[in-house]
Amino acid sequence: MRNTTARVVLGACLLAAAAAAQAPASSFGFTPRLHGDLDRELATEPGRLAFDASRQDPQGPDYTLYGLFRQNHGEFMDNRERFAPQIDLRARILPNARVQHEPGSFDMLGYDFDAKFPVLVSTDAYLTFGAYYLGRRYVTSSAFGTAGNTAGNNMGDETLVGTGGVLGFGVFLADNVLYEMETRPGVWSDMNDTLHHEDFDFPSSAQFTFRTMENFFFKIGARYNQVYEDAPWL
Asked: CA of 195: how far to CAs of 7, 24, 104, 162, 203, in Å?
């Protein structure tokens, strides 16, 4: 008898579980999302557009410019590169650093700010705008920089600054092909004297990103900057 009762109870539980699994999601107050990924709410930069819950229509698909861009390219933008914030603040310190064959030492304090924001212009393209500030403060010992120089003729403390703006765009040439271009015109100087043309530069890059599988991408492009004197173009 007890076995019969247990079988009846077990059968009733299985029927209830099957009915719940087949019930439409809307009956619980949820609407299935396109791509089923909460719109990759942490996705940002560059062109990774942040999730905004207020722009989602709980009654159906989002037909705003943002919503259509996400429908067409959201998964591509989320997976093409590692997450990077739209606003980035950094600081670093390098104490008691030395240069080979150079007497003395120096301390370096670095502080950086970088901000970049995408602005949609169509369901397949966006512009990027931003700004940056890079600072390096070097505090040297009295002996640093004296190698080969007369006594007392050391390098001295120094503050270097790099600051400028960010301009760029991205456009989908096909569903799985994205072309991006960016330039960061700015000034790099110790700010101790009048600026000269050598203090101005415009580091730039252009890049194609191809998706060959869901989570597999190829990238090819070119960049220009003055970080390496013998290789401004790469």
From this structure: 88, 67, 30, 12, 18
